[in-house]
Specification:
With about 325 residues, this protein is of the alpha/beta class. About 40% of the residues lie in helices and about 15% in strands. Pfam families: Amidohydro_2.
Amino acid sequence: MTVVDMHTHFVPERWPDLAERFGTPDWPWLKHTEAGRGMLMVGEKAFRPVYEALWNPVLRLEEMDRDGVDIQIMCATPVLFGYDRPVRHAAEAAAIFNDLALDMCSHRPQRLKALCQVPLQDIDAACTEVSRSKAQGHVGVQIGNHVGLKNLDDEGLVTFLQHCASERMPVLVHPWDMLGHERMPKYMLQWLVAMPAETQLSILSLILSGAFERIPKELKLCFAHGGGSFAFTLGRVENAWQHRDIVREDCPHPPSHYTDRFYVDSAVFSEDSLELLVNVMGEERVLLGSDSPFPLGEQQVGKLVRGHATFSAERKQKILGLNALDFFALS
């Protein structure tokens, strides 16, 4: 059985000084603090402590071997997106990070794969970078779940998803720049409360707006962190669709009708939550995703799926690898 972890993150060990390159402040950079440790910075502000597995492919492979992972698919840490920058700067930065990701993968290309990032604030530039990245060897694209005040039902973002479908380029939607940060300054509440809400907002934006009616079914679309709050609150959304015309005015089918249009990863950290997720989405639409190597990720990748008390061996095989092999066309 091939085990595929399809949601992991990276930052390069080094990259050009983007503030100097573009003449604008507060670009992300990596401050190496001691051997194997660093601080991801945004300008002069500390953003997140990090360690060597983020940038060292040798250590990354050692950890994969430790956890029994055959293939790992990595994507940029969302703070690198640059959606609020001038398009030319964001496009150049995306190309830099995309090329450095493939450099990491070249250490063991059969086991390390990468998703590209794009300057999503400009749809033409984003489509150009997706096409370039696919030709270079990226197996998909990671996007943030919104661009400023634009949710995924924005017509430009729908056009981008249509382009990804035409390119046969799988898409991972990752929450970022979370709402309500003024009320959640402590305890990582932005990650624990707002992040699941951001993901549910993305999914419902596509469903309730009718956007899925305009996006080809060929699009492979996955939402991180188990789809956030979606599975648990689907009953509430379904009830609202049945009884309030303002909910269903642009959505021709009940929300549950659209669960075959997207996938989710398995990063929910509880047997009961994972069972609910599979019941809602179906066992073919849940992919192993660890969110490693961050502290909020699964610390022993695949443990939740492998040890699930009620899952059959066949179901475990699908979630641990078969679904991802199909999603990314790796088999």
